Each structure stands twice: as C-alpha cells, then as structure tokens.
Amino acid sequence: MGGLSIWHWLIVGIVVMLLFGKGRFSDLMGDVAKGIKSFKKGMAEEDEPVRERRVEALDKPRPAATVEKEPVEEQRPL
C-alpha cells in the first residue's frame, strides 16, 4: 500500500502517450534537451572572467552647504 507497481506506471505511460501522441512527445523531449543545452551554455558563459568597467563621474561633487546656527542660551530651572 502506498507504492506504485509496474502496472500503475504502464497505465500512466499509456495515458501520456495517448494524450501527447508520438510526434508531440518527441518534440517535447527535444525542447527539453534544447533548454538544458542553453542552460549549460549560459552557466559556462558566466564562468568567464568579467571585465571591470570604470565609471567616472561627469561632474566633480561639490561640498555641501554649511548651515550656521545661532547660539542657544542655556535655561536653568529656578
């Protein structure tokens, strides 16, 4: 109980073949293989060293304006 026997897998396989047909199933597997190849190619390209690009500022930053505050008189409790 709880496990699938060989007969269950055969029935599932027959249903899948009926739904997808011979041509669709082979096309589907071909598309999966192409996806795996492109994934591997993308991973291989990622391993190549990345050239660092230097970004320079167009304008030099100006110092921020300073705000002068008036002195505050200290108030003492009576």
UniProtKB/TrEMBL annotation:
<dbReference type="GO" id="GO:0008320">
    <property type="term" value="F:protein transmembrane transporter activity"/>
</dbReference>
<dbReference type="GO" id="GO:0033281">
    <property type="term" value="C:TAT protein transport complex"/>
</dbReference>
<keyword id="KW-0812">Transmembrane</keyword>
<dbReference type="InterPro" id="IPR003369">
    <property type="entry name" value="TatA/B/E"/>
</dbReference>
<keyword id="KW-0813">Transport</keyword>
<feature type="region of interest" description="Disordered">
    <location>
        <begin position="50"/>
        <end position="78"/>
    </location>
</feature>
<keyword id="KW-0997">Cell inner membrane</keyword>
<protein>
    <recommendedName>
        <fullName>Sec-independent protein translocase protein TatA</fullName>
    </recommendedName>
</protein>
<keyword id="KW-1003">Cell membrane</keyword>
<keyword id="KW-1133">Transmembrane helix</keyword>
<keyword id="KW-0653">Protein transport</keyword>
<feature type="transmembrane region" description="Helical">
    <location>
        <begin position="6"/>
        <end position="25"/>
    </location>
</feature>
<dbReference type="GO" id="GO:0043953">
    <property type="term" value="P:protein transport by the Tat complex"/>
</dbReference>
<comment type="subunit">
    <text>The Tat system comprises two distinct complexes: a TatABC complex, containing multiple copies of TatA, TatB and TatC subunits, and a separate TatA complex, containing only TatA subunits. Substrates initially bind to the TatABC complex, which probably triggers association of the separate TatA complex to form the active translocon.</text>
</comment>
<keyword id="KW-0811">Translocation</keyword>
<dbReference type="InterPro" id="IPR006312">
    <property type="entry name" value="TatA/E"/>
</dbReference>
<keyword id="KW-0472">Membrane</keyword>
<comment type="function">
    <text>Part of the twin-arginine translocation (Tat) system that transports large folded proteins containing a characteristic twin-arginine motif in their signal peptide across membranes. TatA could form the protein-conducting channel of the Tat system.</text>
</comment>
<dbReference type="Pfam" id="PF02416">
    <property type="entry name" value="TatA_B_E"/>
</dbReference>
<comment type="similarity">
    <text>Belongs to the TatA/E family.</text>
</comment>
